[in-house]
Amino acid sequence: MRFRRHSADAFELCDIHPLFAELLAELPRAAARHDNARARIYPDPFVSADGPAEASEDWCEHVHPELERLFAASRETVSADLGESPAGSTASRCVIPRAHIDAWLNALNQARLVIVEENKFGERELSGSEPPDLSTRRGLSLLKIHFYAHLQELLVEAAG
Description:
Layout lengths: L1 E6 L2 E5 L3 H15 L5 H4 L3 H4 L4 H31 L9 E5 L3 H19 L3 H4 L10 H23 L1
Antiparallel strand pairs: 1-2, 2-3
Helix pairs in contact: 1-4, 1-5, 4-5, 5-7
């Protein structure tokens, strides 16, 4: 897979291996599985700090719904970008407009948090010091986390 400038206002992932194309196609769905990761994705900062109940209620009433809307919009943007790739759900090419980089970073982070929580990965596994066992679902999930992290790094560098 290569990452390169597509135009003045877009970047392109091209020559994507079919396995990684599937992981890309799965990104919006993986990011949307918030049920098992709500505490990691929507942490109430006032509960852990023993803050005032009123502040926690305000956070739950005003901030949490806005985060949900932001996260859903990010997933929709990524879905649209993936859908605009050439025919097939596992295209070998994907164009990411510069204006969509924040949405991609957001969706990639959501997906990584969800996958970590679903699999209860620890620091040792996430450090990447050992290659994942791709013969297991857990190993494939770990590969997915590392792949999404690599995409985040590429996009952060591109945005800079």
